[in-house]
User: What shape does this take?
Amino acid sequence: MSQELLDEGSVVGYLNSRGLITGDAQVEVLTGGVSCVVLAVRTPEKSLVVKQALPELKVASVWKADQRRAIVEANAMKLLHSLTPQSVPELIDLDADTFTLTMSRLPDSCTNWKLDLLDGVIHPSIGADLGEILATWHNFGATNSQVRSDYSEDSLFEQLRVTPFYRSVARKNPGLAASIAKLIEEVTTVKLTLVHGDFSPKNILITAEHKPIVLDFEVAHTGNPVFDLAFVSAHLLCKFLRTSDPLVRSKIRDTAINFRDSYARDSNLEIAPSLAQHVALIARARVEGVSLVNYLDEAGQARVLALSATALSNENIAFEELFA
Assistant: This one.
């Protein structure tokens, strides 16, 4: 990069130089996960979030990623906001030279869906809403050849998803490698629509009215819709297997089924029969891949490994069986 990464001390001057604010502002460091610097900036007139892509992700293993993903994210955010304005933040500015985007900040009353799920605050209706949102995006991409062309470059998907979530698990499990190879071929060669690529609870904020708002579009690409379905479902599965509380498990199961059924009702694309296997594989990657979840104890990890091994050995396993 040609400039240092932004921080609390430099972001106000940066926004002034871009003409996005005038004068001083309050700055708050937000969690950027492993991939970005994320700063909230508030003036009397504006409330913004500034996000800058890191050249190397903050995980235990070396995981480099092209910073151009910030440009992909900005373009996808603008597009998907136009389709579902209540469910995607508004893009304010893209600085392609420093891989930085500025967006509207969501209300402080919003909560992070991942944290809600871990705290047992579970509203199964959110699953249905997310299925509808995702179906809207997939339907649009499937019928718009220009969009599919615009997002046809998928090296970021390989860097950030296929290698760490599919290939890394295959390397560690020779007995499952043949099954995983089929899933890799499916998500890398069957390219039907615009895919979000990071449809995950940590990237979904929930309003006070229990409505979801989706963030983080940097892995958007033309690809296989089964990946988006599987990615969020794998996170739900990990949280389902984390707990033995029957009420919590029931609500997570209902959320997952609502999501799948809502998508199936509203989508013009068929759900791939391999969905459950993709879910199982991605869940397994969260235990032994590159990007690990931090909320599973040894017993929970063992449940994920056992269930995923069974699912990856059975091409006919149904989605519902994962949440039995």
Q: What stands out?
A: The beta strands are 26-30, 36-42, 47-53, 91-95, 100-104, 111-112, 193-195, 204-206, 212-214, 221-223. Confidence is low (pLDDT under 50) at residues 58-64. The longest strand covers residues 36-42. The longest helix spans residues 246-266.
